[in-house]
Amino acid sequence: MDIELIKELYLKNKEESLFHRYITNDHVSPLLQKRKGGIDVNTIGKSVFGEPIYGFKIGNGNKRILMWSQMHGNESTTTKALFDLINTFLDSTSDVDYILSSCTIYIIPILNPDGARAYTRINANEIDLNRDAQNLTQPESRVLRKVFEDFNPHFCYNLHGQRTIFSAGKTSNSATVSFLAPAQDEICTITPNRKVAMEVISVMNKSLQKVIPQQIGVYDDAFNINCVGDTFQSQNVPTILFEAGHSKDDYARDKTRELIYLSYLVSLDYISRNSINGLHYKDYFDIPENDKCFLDVIIRNAKVEGDNVDIGIQFQENLVDNRVTFLPRVEKIENLNELYGHLEIEASGCEVLAHDGKTLKIGYENVCVILNNEKILLLSK
Asked: Where would I find the Peptidase M14 domain in this sequence (predicted)?
C-alpha cells in the first residue's frame, strides 16, 4: 500500500477528539455512540469497578482479525490509532472497502478501563492482565478469552505501548515502533503460525523503514504462557504484538500514532490481498532486537561533588487534573558512555546543582537544574 496515500488518509481521518496520553471510556464512549450506524457496538463485559468493556465488529469478510488495546491502561497510542482506522473505514471516499470485504475485524478499544482511568498498567485489583492469560482471575481477562473463543480469529493484534528507554538494537536509534511474533513453547520453535505472524511483521517493517529507517525493533521472544500473546499463539493463531514507542520530542505520541496507523493499514491490506502461508518470514530476523540504551535526558561531562560524571534523567509520568504530566527524576550519576539521551545537554566540566542550589542526588525530581548559574529546563517539550 502506498505510503503517501496512507499519510493522506491519516490526515483526513485522524480523530481529533483523542489526543495526548490520557484516554478513557469517557473519551471513546461518545465516539462509539456516534458511529453506531456503521459498526455493531456492544458492551461485552464489565471491569472490576463496573465500567463497560466495549467490543464491535466492522467488515464482513471471511478473514477474522481480533484487535485489543489498552490491556495496560496507560498505553493509549494504539487506541487513538484504532479510531483513526475506524474513521478511515467509515469514510466512503477512502477506497479501502476491499479490506472490509475480505476481513471481519473485531475491536476491543479499551480492555482495561479501570487502569485507563487511573492511568496505570495494572487493573483495579493490581493485576497485570498480560500475566493472567492462564489463570483468568480477572473479569477483563475472561472477557478477552470469551471473545477469542467465540470469534475464533485467524489473526490477533495485541496492541501496547513501550517506554522511552528502548532502542532498536544496541544503537542510538530509538525503537519508535516494535513488534513480536510471540513464542508458543519453551524452546521458541519457529512454528507455522509464528511464520505467518513474522511474514506480516516483515511487510510492516518494510513500509516503516521508508519513514523511520532503523527505528523498528522486535522484542525478545522468551516464552511465558501467562502472557496473552504466547497463549493465543500456542492456540495456533498467528499473533502479533504491536508496541508504540518514542520518537524524538514526541511525548504526546502523535508521530508514533501515525506510524501505528500506517502499520494497521499496511498489514490489513496485505492480509486482505494474500493467502499468507509464512513462506516469506525470514526478513523478520533482519529486525534488531530491542535494547535499553536510552534515558530521557543525559547531562554530559558534569561536575557533581567534585567528580566528573554524566547525569541520567528519566521522566516520571503522572496523572494531574486528567492530564498526563512529566516530571524529570535523576536515575543515574555515573559514566553513561553506553547510553543515549533523547535530549543531551553538554556541561563541559561545570558543576550541576539542584534547582535550589543543593548537591544533586539520585532521586532528585524537578523540571530544572542549575548549570553555570542558569536554570536549565530538563523537559524538551
From this structure: 9-271
In the chain, ranges of CATH 3.40.630.10 domains = 3-292
Q: Output 26-35 pairs: Cβ under 8 A, ≥24 positions apart.
A: 26/117, 28/54, 28/79, 28/83, 28/109, 28/110, 29/54, 31/83, 32/56, 32/109, 35/86, 35/90
**Cβ of 150: how many Cβ atoms within 10 Å?**
10
Residue 330, phi then psi, degrees to nearest 5: -70, 120
pLDDT of amino acid 17:
97
- Side-chain-side CA neighbours of 34 within 13 Å: the count stands at 11
Q: pTM for this structure? A: 0.97
DSSP-derived secondary structure letter, 130: G
| Residue among 195, 184, 164 at smallest CA distance from 284 | 195
Q: Any catalytic annotation for residue 243?
A: yes
Which of these is catalytic: 15, 75, 243, 331? 243
Supply the pLDDT for residue 240: 98
Residue among 60, 86, 152, 193 nearest 78 (CA) = 86
The pLDDT assigned to 274 comes to 97
List the strands of the sheet with 155-161, edge to edge.
40-46, 52-59, 103-108, 63-68, 155-161, 239-244, 177-180, 216-218
Residue 381's pLDDT is: 52
According to CATH, where is 2.30.40.10 located in the chain?
Answer: 294-377
- What's the DSSP call for residue 283? G
Pairing between β-strand 177-180 and β-strand 166-168 as defined by DSSP bridges: unpaired
Q: What class does CATH assign to 3-292?
A: alpha beta
CATH 2.30.40.10 fits 294-377, yes or no: yes
Per-block mean pLDDT, blocks of 10 residues, the chain (381 long): 96 97 98 87 97 97 98 98 97 96 98 98 98 98 98 98 98 98 97 98 98 97 97 98 96 97 98 97 98 98 96 97 97 98 97 95 96 89 52
